[in-house]
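DM from R.C. (forwarded with permission)

"hey, sorry to bug you on a friday — could you get me a structure for this? deadline for the figure draft is monday and I only need the backbone to look sensible"
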Amino acid sequence: MADDALLDRLRAIARDEGVSLAEVIREGMELRAQRGRPALTFVGSIATGKPGHRTAESVGDLAPSPRTWR
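My reply, with the result:
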């Protein structure tokens, strides 16, 4: 549920435009859906070379640590 301040702002928009609150909310949802989803950046973050991140080249050099078997 939206907080009271947001609902007040949406009600004011609806009142100013002469439409229902539901119409303003629907329009907002349509605009949000049009933006789409952000692209996944997991693979890109590996190869960025930023400090604290491993580059794709160095990731290939990593050897898995052996498991302990009991």
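R.C.: lifesaver. The chain has one domain: 4-59.
me: no worries. Residues 4-59 form one domain.
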